[in-house]
Design a protein that fits this description.
The protein is an all-alpha fold and about 260 residues long. It has helices spanning about 5-15, 20-35, 35-45, 55-65, 75-85, 90-100, 110-115, 120-130, 140-150, 150-160, 170-180, 185-195, 205-210, 215-225, 230-235, 240-245, 250-260.
Length: about 260
């Protein structure tokens, strides 16, 4: 870093020959202090079909991080938007992720179109990229796909809703609604996210209902979250907790034993 004029060209040259681990380190380093110089080499990586897929993905992440700081990101953005039309699903995948940076509103409509791509991985990437735009207007579209999209896309959307900061109350209501969903995976994700977004005591009745869920993951997680409450607050759950000491699932049983000792 003290000899930047020599170091950057040397690192870029090494990038072409480095092994997997060293490429990671060089990409990360250059992304911190040589954004302008590393942008197009990163683009070449994500468009190179012979490059390792993990490296291509890492390069696309770094490109989405540095693009807002480029002096003129437009030429790169234009190339990435063209790549979204490629018949190669891997290229669409990596280009889509690279376009997901805050304020890149020109990518919104092309990324929205990717929500309906035939490849589920690209659908999920589109969700991530659109969330990274930090545009609250996209929330309504996300909620529409949450109703009608495939399960994998629904899970990805749930996991990204926290990014819509100014819509916190609406997002929490979505989590609460999905705790009644027929799909156990969505109920579990919703409970995890509710626990991250709110205090357990704000929704005690919700956690109480989760104790009787058919999915043992949800019962165990509800017990774990209830451990945040005081002994006095847990007294209202005493009967349910004692009943769960004989739960057929070992994780549920262990969580119930822990709460029983607290009581």
């Amino acid at each position: 870093m003290e000899e930047r004029d020599k170091a950057v060209p040397l690192l870029l040259k090494a990038l072409k020959h480095a092994n997997h681990e060293l490429k990671h380190e060089i990409i990360f380093l250059l992304g911190n202090f040589a954004k302008q110089e590393v942008a197009w080499p990163l683009y070449q990586m994500i468009t190179d079909p012979d490059e390792d897929e993990e490296i291509r993905h890492f390069a696309s992440i770094q490109l989405s991080v540095i693009s807002p700081f480029l002096k003129d990101p437009q030429p790169l953005t234009d190339r990435l938007l063209e790549d979204l039309k490629s018949p190669d699903p891997e290229l669409r995948l990596h280009a889509g992720f690279a376009l997901g940076w805050e304020g890149n509103t020109q990518a919104a409509i092309p990324l929205i179109e990717l929500l309906y791509d035939s490849d589920i991985r690209i659908q999920q990437t589109a969700v991530n990229a659109l969330s990274n735009l930090r545009d609250d207007r996209i929330l309504s579209l996300m909620l529409e796909r949450l109703e009608h999209g495939p399960l994998e896309q629904k899970r990805c959307i749930l996991l990204n809703l926290w990014r819509f900061y100014s819509k916190r109350d609406e997002v929490i209501s979505v989590y609460l609604k999905h705790l009644n969903h027929a799909e156990a995976d969505l109920r579990f994700d919703a409970l995890v996210l509710l626990g991250l977004a709110t205090e357990t005591r704000e929704h005690i009745s919700v956690y109480r209902k989760c104790l009787s869920d058919k999915d043992p993951r949800i019962r165990a997680l509800a017990l774990k979250d209830l451990d945040e409450l005081s002994s006095e607050e847990l007294l209202g759950f005493k009967e349910e907790i004692q009943d769960m000491l004989s739960d057929p699932d070992m994780k549920v049983k262990k969580a119930a034993i822990k709460l029983s000792k607290k009581l």
